[in-house]
Amino acid sequence: MRRQEAIEVLANGRGSAISVATMQSIVPWHNAGQGEFDHLDAQRCMGSASSLGLGLALAVPDRNVFVLDGDGSLLMQLGSLVSIAHARPRNLYHFIFANGVHETTGNQPLPGAGVFDFCVLATGAGYQGAFSVSTRDEFEEQLPRILDTPGPVLVNLVIDREDDRSAGSAGVPMASQIKALRKSFGPTDDNSP
Amino acid sequence: MTTQDEAVARPVPGQAVVDEILRLGIEYVITVPDSVQRTVLELLAQLEKPRLLTVCTEDEAMGVNAGLYAGGVNAMLCIQNNGVLASLNAIKAITLDAQAPTLMLVGQFGRDVRLPASESRNRAVRLLAPTLEAWDVPHYPLEGPEDIGNIAAAFERAHRDSGPAAVIIGAPTS
Protein backbone atom coordinates (compact mmCIF):
# COMPACT_ATOMS: atom_id res chain seq x y z
CA MET A 1 0.00 0.00 0.00
CA ARG A 2 1.20 3.50 -0.72
CA ARG A 3 1.17 6.06 2.08
CA GLN A 4 -1.27 8.17 0.08
CA GLU A 5 -3.75 5.30 -0.13
CA ALA A 6 -3.69 4.80 3.62
CA ILE A 7 -4.13 8.55 4.13
CA GLU A 8 -7.21 8.53 1.90
CA VAL A 9 -8.79 5.64 3.79
CA LEU A 10 -8.13 7.36 7.11
CA ALA A 11 -9.47 10.69 5.87
CA ASN A 12 -12.67 9.01 4.66
CA GLY A 13 -13.09 7.25 7.99
CA ARG A 14 -12.08 10.08 10.30
CA GLY A 15 -15.54 11.37 11.17
CA SER A 16 -15.25 13.75 14.13
CA ALA A 17 -11.93 12.39 15.36
CA ILE A 18 -9.21 14.77 16.54
CA SER A 19 -5.97 13.97 14.73
CA VAL A 20 -2.24 14.14 15.44
CA ALA A 21 0.23 13.58 12.59
CA THR A 22 4.00 13.48 12.45
CA MET A 23 6.89 13.40 9.98
CA GLN A 24 6.04 12.15 6.48
CA SER A 25 2.29 11.92 7.13
CA ILE A 26 1.91 15.62 7.89
CA VAL A 27 1.88 17.00 4.35
CA PRO A 28 -0.38 14.34 2.76
CA TRP A 29 -2.80 14.64 5.70
CA HIS A 30 -2.99 18.39 5.11
CA ASN A 31 -3.29 17.87 1.36
CA ALA A 32 -6.27 15.63 2.05
CA GLY A 33 -7.92 18.57 3.82
CA GLN A 34 -7.50 17.05 7.28
CA GLY A 35 -5.16 19.62 8.79
CA GLU A 36 -7.61 22.48 8.95
CA PHE A 37 -9.65 21.49 12.00
CA ASP A 38 -9.12 19.71 15.31
CA HIS A 39 -5.61 18.73 14.30
CA LEU A 40 -2.06 18.90 15.64
CA ASP A 41 1.23 18.29 13.85
CA ALA A 42 3.97 16.86 16.07
CA GLN A 43 6.91 18.83 14.69
CA ARG A 44 10.56 18.96 15.78
CA CYS A 45 9.83 16.40 18.47
CA MET A 46 10.14 13.06 16.69
CA GLY A 47 8.50 10.37 18.78
CA SER A 48 6.07 12.65 20.60
CA ALA A 49 2.95 12.11 18.47
CA SER A 50 1.75 9.25 20.68
CA SER A 51 2.09 11.19 23.93
CA LEU A 52 0.45 14.29 22.46
CA GLY A 53 -2.39 12.02 21.31
CA LEU A 54 -2.66 10.47 24.76
CA GLY A 55 -3.08 13.90 26.35
CA LEU A 56 -5.78 14.85 23.86
CA ALA A 57 -7.57 11.54 24.29
CA LEU A 58 -7.69 11.98 28.07
CA ALA A 59 -8.81 15.59 27.79
CA VAL A 60 -11.57 14.96 25.23
CA PRO A 61 -12.93 11.51 26.07
CA ASP A 62 -16.08 11.87 23.96
CA ARG A 63 -14.13 12.23 20.72
CA ASN A 64 -11.91 9.69 19.01
CA VAL A 65 -8.26 10.64 18.60
CA PHE A 66 -6.33 9.40 15.56
CA VAL A 67 -2.53 9.38 15.91
CA LEU A 68 -0.73 9.10 12.57
CA ASP A 69 2.69 7.89 13.71
CA GLY A 70 5.75 6.54 11.94
CA ASP A 71 7.56 3.32 12.73
CA GLY A 72 10.87 5.10 13.29
CA SER A 73 9.11 7.77 15.32
CA LEU A 74 7.40 5.29 17.60
CA LEU A 75 10.68 3.48 18.18
CA MET A 76 12.09 6.71 19.60
CA GLN A 77 9.50 6.67 22.39
CA LEU A 78 8.52 3.02 22.45
CA GLY A 79 7.71 3.24 26.15
CA SER A 80 4.71 5.37 25.19
CA LEU A 81 2.93 2.14 24.27
CA VAL A 82 3.07 1.16 27.93
CA SER A 83 2.13 4.64 29.13
CA ILE A 84 -0.88 4.70 26.79
CA ALA A 85 -2.01 1.22 27.80
CA HIS A 86 -1.64 2.21 31.47
CA ALA A 87 -3.86 5.28 30.96
CA ARG A 88 -6.44 3.19 29.03
CA PRO A 89 -7.93 5.86 26.73
CA ARG A 90 -10.86 4.07 25.03
CA ASN A 91 -10.87 6.71 22.28
CA LEU A 92 -7.25 6.47 21.09
CA TYR A 93 -6.46 4.88 17.70
CA HIS A 94 -2.77 4.67 16.95
CA PHE A 95 -1.94 4.23 13.25
CA ILE A 96 1.67 3.38 12.42
CA PHE A 97 2.93 4.06 8.90
CA ALA A 98 5.46 1.26 8.72
CA ASN A 99 7.94 1.26 5.87
CA GLY A 100 10.94 -0.03 7.79
CA VAL A 101 13.07 3.03 7.13
CA HIS A 102 13.81 6.52 8.35
CA GLU A 103 12.29 8.06 5.24
CA THR A 104 12.86 11.71 6.14
CA THR A 105 16.62 11.31 6.46
CA GLY A 106 17.05 9.23 3.32
CA ASN A 107 15.51 5.79 3.77
CA GLN A 108 18.10 4.41 6.17
CA PRO A 109 16.86 1.08 7.57
CA LEU A 110 15.36 1.01 11.05
CA PRO A 111 17.09 -1.09 13.67
CA GLY A 112 15.32 -4.41 13.79
CA ALA A 113 13.34 -3.76 10.62
CA GLY A 114 11.53 -6.93 9.60
CA VAL A 115 12.12 -8.48 13.00
CA PHE A 116 10.16 -6.51 15.62
CA ASP A 117 6.38 -6.60 15.50
CA PHE A 118 4.39 -3.55 16.63
CA CYS A 119 1.21 -5.60 17.06
CA VAL A 120 2.97 -7.93 19.48
CA LEU A 121 4.57 -4.98 21.27
CA ALA A 122 1.23 -3.17 21.57
CA THR A 123 -0.75 -6.11 22.87
CA GLY A 124 2.13 -7.00 25.15
CA ALA A 125 2.03 -3.45 26.51
CA GLY A 126 -1.68 -3.75 27.20
CA TYR A 127 -3.40 -2.21 24.16
CA GLN A 128 -6.95 -3.48 23.77
CA GLY A 129 -6.45 -4.38 20.12
CA ALA A 130 -3.87 -4.49 17.36
CA PHE A 131 -4.31 -4.91 13.62
CA SER A 132 -1.97 -5.05 10.65
CA VAL A 133 -3.03 -4.27 7.10
CA SER A 134 -0.98 -4.10 3.93
CA THR A 135 -3.40 -3.19 1.13
CA ARG A 136 -5.90 -0.39 0.61
CA ASP A 137 -8.79 -2.83 0.20
CA GLU A 138 -7.88 -4.62 3.40
CA PHE A 139 -7.62 -1.33 5.31
CA GLU A 140 -10.98 -0.11 3.99
CA GLU A 141 -12.60 -3.39 4.95
CA GLN A 142 -11.02 -3.50 8.43
CA LEU A 143 -11.44 0.15 9.48
CA PRO A 144 -15.06 -0.16 10.74
CA ARG A 145 -14.06 -3.15 12.86
CA ILE A 146 -10.99 -1.31 14.11
CA LEU A 147 -13.09 1.67 15.19
CA ASP A 148 -15.63 -0.63 16.87
CA THR A 149 -12.85 -1.93 19.11
CA PRO A 150 -12.46 0.14 22.30
CA GLY A 151 -9.05 1.75 22.52
CA PRO A 152 -6.27 1.97 22.84
CA VAL A 153 -5.87 0.23 19.50
CA LEU A 154 -2.75 0.07 17.32
CA VAL A 155 -2.95 -0.37 13.55
CA ASN A 156 0.23 -1.30 11.72
CA LEU A 157 -0.06 0.09 8.18
CA VAL A 158 2.47 -1.68 5.99
CA ILE A 159 3.41 0.88 3.35
CA ASP A 160 5.88 1.02 0.48
CA ARG A 161 9.22 2.78 0.66
CA GLU A 162 9.08 5.97 -1.38
CA ASP A 163 11.74 8.37 -2.57
CA ASP A 164 9.59 11.47 -3.05
CA ARG A 165 9.70 12.44 0.59
CA SER A 166 8.04 15.65 1.71
CA ALA A 167 9.46 18.44 3.81
CA GLY A 168 7.73 17.01 6.86
CA SER A 169 5.94 20.27 7.56
CA ALA A 170 2.81 21.85 6.19
CA GLY A 171 4.01 25.26 7.26
CA VAL A 172 1.50 25.59 10.08
CA PRO A 173 3.14 26.32 13.43
CA MET A 174 2.41 23.79 16.13
CA ALA A 175 1.85 26.68 18.55
CA SER A 176 -1.07 28.02 16.53
CA GLN A 177 -2.59 24.54 16.32
CA ILE A 178 -2.40 24.11 20.09
CA LYS A 179 -4.05 27.49 20.59
CA ALA A 180 -6.82 26.60 18.12
CA LEU A 181 -7.47 23.28 19.87
CA ARG A 182 -7.49 24.99 23.29
CA LYS A 183 -10.02 27.49 21.95
CA SER A 184 -12.24 24.63 20.75
CA PHE A 185 -11.99 22.44 23.82
CA GLY A 186 -10.89 24.72 26.64
CA PRO A 187 -13.09 26.29 29.29
CA THR A 188 -15.20 29.17 27.98
CA ASP A 189 -13.74 31.51 30.59
CA ASP A 190 -10.19 30.45 29.78
CA ASN A 191 -7.78 33.35 29.98
CA SER A 192 -4.82 31.37 28.72
CA PRO A 193 -3.17 32.79 25.64
CA MET B 1 23.21 13.94 60.60
CA THR B 2 22.29 17.31 59.11
CA THR B 3 20.59 19.74 61.46
CA GLN B 4 18.13 22.39 60.38
CA ASP B 5 20.73 25.04 61.16
CA GLU B 6 23.27 23.47 58.82
CA ALA B 7 20.88 23.01 55.92
CA VAL B 8 20.64 25.49 53.06
CA ALA B 9 17.58 23.73 51.69
CA ARG B 10 14.89 22.57 54.13
CA PRO B 11 11.98 20.18 53.64
CA VAL B 12 8.64 21.53 52.48
CA PRO B 13 5.67 19.51 53.71
CA GLY B 14 4.26 17.37 50.93
CA GLN B 15 0.77 18.38 51.97
CA ALA B 16 1.62 22.05 51.41
CA VAL B 17 2.68 21.25 47.84
CA VAL B 18 -0.49 19.25 47.24
CA ASP B 19 -2.62 22.07 48.66
CA GLU B 20 -1.06 24.44 46.12
CA ILE B 21 -1.74 21.99 43.29
CA LEU B 22 -5.37 21.70 44.38
CA ARG B 23 -5.71 25.47 44.71
CA LEU B 24 -4.49 25.94 41.13
CA GLY B 25 -7.22 23.62 39.82
CA ILE B 26 -4.78 21.27 38.15
CA GLU B 27 -6.56 18.15 36.88
CA TYR B 28 -3.63 15.91 35.97
CA VAL B 29 -0.19 15.49 37.51
CA ILE B 30 2.11 13.62 35.15
CA THR B 31 5.16 12.05 36.67
CA VAL B 32 8.25 10.01 36.14
CA PRO B 33 8.74 9.38 39.84
CA ASP B 34 11.20 11.46 41.82
CA SER B 35 12.44 10.46 45.24
CA VAL B 36 12.74 14.12 46.33
CA GLN B 37 8.95 14.42 45.85
CA ARG B 38 8.11 11.02 47.34
CA THR B 39 5.68 12.36 49.93
CA VAL B 40 3.95 14.56 47.35
CA LEU B 41 3.47 11.59 45.05
CA GLU B 42 2.17 9.44 47.91
CA LEU B 43 -0.44 12.05 48.79
CA LEU B 44 -1.45 12.58 45.16
CA ALA B 45 -1.85 8.83 44.66
CA GLN B 46 -4.63 8.88 47.25
CA LEU B 47 -6.65 11.52 45.38
CA GLU B 48 -9.10 11.03 42.51
CA LYS B 49 -8.47 14.57 41.35
CA PRO B 50 -5.96 15.59 40.27
CA ARG B 51 -5.32 12.27 38.58
CA LEU B 52 -1.73 11.12 39.04
CA LEU B 53 -0.50 9.65 35.77
CA THR B 54 2.85 7.88 35.66
CA VAL B 55 4.53 7.69 32.25
CA CYS B 56 7.74 6.03 31.12
CA THR B 57 9.87 9.04 30.17
CA GLU B 58 9.97 12.79 30.72
CA ASP B 59 9.70 13.28 26.92
CA GLU B 60 6.32 11.63 27.11
CA ALA B 61 5.36 13.74 30.10
CA MET B 62 5.94 16.93 28.07
CA GLY B 63 3.78 15.57 25.24
CA VAL B 64 0.93 14.38 27.45
CA ASN B 65 0.89 17.73 29.28
CA ALA B 66 0.65 19.61 25.96
CA GLY B 67 -2.08 17.31 24.64
CA LEU B 68 -4.10 17.78 27.81
CA TYR B 69 -3.66 21.55 27.60
CA ALA B 70 -4.74 21.59 23.95
CA GLY B 71 -7.79 19.56 24.95
CA GLY B 72 -8.76 22.09 27.60
CA VAL B 73 -7.30 20.46 30.70
CA ASN B 74 -4.61 22.01 32.90
CA ALA B 75 -1.84 19.65 33.99
CA MET B 76 1.66 19.74 35.41
CA LEU B 77 4.75 17.57 35.83
CA CYS B 78 6.62 16.11 38.80
CA ILE B 79 10.06 14.98 37.60
CA GLN B 80 13.68 15.07 38.75
CA ASN B 81 16.76 16.94 37.62
CA ASN B 82 18.04 14.03 35.51
CA GLY B 83 14.65 13.97 33.76
CA VAL B 84 15.07 17.55 32.64
CA LEU B 85 18.38 16.62 31.05
CA ALA B 86 16.80 13.57 29.41
CA SER B 87 13.96 15.55 27.85
CA LEU B 88 15.64 18.67 26.51
CA ASN B 89 14.46 18.09 22.93
CA ALA B 90 10.85 17.83 24.10
CA ILE B 91 11.29 20.95 26.25
CA LYS B 92 12.65 22.75 23.19
CA ALA B 93 10.00 21.59 20.71
CA ILE B 94 6.86 21.28 22.80
CA THR B 95 7.13 23.82 25.58
CA LEU B 96 9.24 26.50 23.87
CA ASP B 97 8.61 26.25 20.10
CA ALA B 98 5.01 25.02 20.41
CA GLN B 99 4.37 27.27 23.42
CA ALA B 100 2.57 24.73 25.57
CA PRO B 101 2.28 26.05 29.14
CA THR B 102 4.26 23.55 31.20
CA LEU B 103 4.69 23.75 34.96
CA MET B 104 7.30 21.31 36.17
CA LEU B 105 8.27 20.58 39.74
CA VAL B 106 11.84 19.34 39.56
CA GLY B 107 13.47 17.54 42.46
CA GLN B 108 17.20 18.01 43.06
CA PHE B 109 18.01 14.33 43.34
CA GLY B 110 21.47 13.80 44.80
CA ARG B 111 21.86 17.21 46.42
CA ASP B 112 23.72 17.75 49.67
CA VAL B 113 21.25 20.09 51.37
CA ARG B 114 24.07 21.70 53.39
CA LEU B 115 25.44 23.29 50.22
CA PRO B 116 23.99 25.70 47.69
CA ALA B 117 23.14 23.81 44.51
CA SER B 118 25.74 25.85 42.65
CA GLU B 119 28.46 24.35 44.88
CA SER B 120 27.27 20.74 44.65
CA ARG B 121 29.70 18.06 43.52
CA ASN B 122 26.76 16.37 41.79
CA ARG B 123 26.84 17.56 38.19
CA ALA B 124 23.08 17.28 37.61
CA VAL B 125 22.37 19.29 40.78
CA ARG B 126 24.98 21.95 40.00
CA LEU B 127 24.07 22.39 36.34
CA LEU B 128 20.27 22.13 36.46
CA ALA B 129 19.66 25.88 36.84
CA PRO B 130 22.34 26.88 34.29
CA THR B 131 20.87 24.35 31.85
CA LEU B 132 17.38 25.77 32.25
CA GLU B 133 18.78 29.28 31.80
CA ALA B 134 20.62 28.25 28.64
CA TRP B 135 17.25 27.20 27.21
CA ASP B 136 15.35 30.27 28.44
CA VAL B 137 13.30 28.25 30.89
CA PRO B 138 12.36 30.41 33.90
CA HIS B 139 12.83 28.73 37.25
CA TYR B 140 11.83 29.36 40.83
CA PRO B 141 13.35 27.96 44.04
CA LEU B 142 11.59 25.84 46.62
CA GLU B 143 14.33 25.86 49.24
CA GLY B 144 12.02 25.86 52.23
CA PRO B 145 8.41 26.33 53.36
CA GLU B 146 8.63 30.09 52.86
CA ASP B 147 8.96 29.53 49.08
CA ILE B 148 5.64 27.69 48.67
CA GLY B 149 4.11 30.62 46.78
CA ASN B 150 6.59 30.02 43.97
CA ILE B 151 4.50 27.10 42.71
CA ALA B 152 1.62 29.45 41.90
CA ALA B 153 4.06 32.02 40.53
CA ALA B 154 5.53 29.45 38.14
CA PHE B 155 2.07 28.24 37.08
CA GLU B 156 1.01 31.79 36.31
CA ARG B 157 4.26 32.45 34.44
CA ALA B 158 3.85 29.32 32.31
CA HIS B 159 0.31 30.25 31.33
CA ARG B 160 0.94 33.96 30.92
CA ASP B 161 3.98 33.44 28.70
CA SER B 162 2.78 30.21 27.04
CA GLY B 163 5.87 28.20 27.84
CA PRO B 164 7.73 26.25 30.46
CA ALA B 165 8.39 27.24 34.07
CA ALA B 166 10.21 25.10 36.58
CA VAL B 167 10.12 24.99 40.37
CA ILE B 168 13.36 23.50 41.68
CA ILE B 169 12.81 21.54 44.89
CA GLY B 170 15.99 21.71 46.93
CA ALA B 171 15.34 19.14 49.66
CA PRO B 172 13.18 16.04 49.97
CA THR B 173 9.61 16.96 50.87
CA SER B 174 8.42 15.89 54.31
Structure notes:
The complex is a heterodimer of chains A (193) and B (174). Chain A has one domain (3-183): Rossmann fold (3-Layer(aba) Sandwich). Chain A is built from eight helices and eight strands. Chain A has helices at residues 3-13, 26-31, 49-59, 71-76, 80-87, 118-125, 136-148, 174-185, and strands at residues 18-22, 39-42, 65-70, 92-98, 101-102, 108-109, 129-133, 153-158. In chain A, helix 1 (3-13) runs parallel beside helix 7 (136-148). The N and C termini of chain A lie far apart (42 Å). Chain B has 174 residues and is of the alpha/beta class. Chain B has one domain (19-169): Thiamin diphosphate (ThDP)-binding fold, Pyr/PP domains (Rossmann fold). Chain B is built from seven helices and six strands, in the order αβαβαβααβαβαβ. Chain B has helices spanning 14-23, 38-45, 58-70, 81-86, 88-97, 123-134, 149-161, and strands at residues 28-31, 51-54, 75-80, 102-107, 139-142, 164-169. In chain B, helix 7 (149-161) links the parallel strand 5 (139-142) and strand 6. The longest helix of chain B has 13 residues, at 58-70. In chain B, 53% of the residues are buried. The interface between A and B is large, with 43 and 35 residues.
CATH topology of chain B: Rossmann fold
Poorly predicted runs of chain B are: none
Count of folded domains of chain B: 1
Question: Major sheet of chain B, described briefly?
Answer: 6 strands, parallel
CATH level-4 homologous superfamily of chain A: Thiamin diphosphate (ThDP)-binding fold, Pyr/PP domains
Mean pLDDT of chain A: 94
* Main β-sheet, spatial strand arrangement of chain B: 2-1-3-4-6-5
Strands of the largest sheet of chain A, in order across it? 2-1-3-4-8-7
Based on secondary structure, the structural category of chain B is alpha/beta
